[in-house]
Amino acid sequence: MRLHIHLSRNKEVVPFNYQERQVSKLHYWLGKNEIHNKQSLYSFSWLKNGEQRGEKGLMFTNGSQYFISCFDNNLIKQIIKSIQADNDFGWGMKIISLSLEKEPTFNTEHSFSVGSPVFIKRLQLESKNSKFYFYNDIEANLFLTQTLTNKLKQAGLPSSDIEVRFDESFPNPHIKGCMYKGVKNKGSICPIIIKGTPEQLAFAWNVGVGNSTGIGFGSLI
Question: The domain at 2-101 falls in which architecture?
Answer without folding.
Answer: 2-Layer Sandwich (3.30)
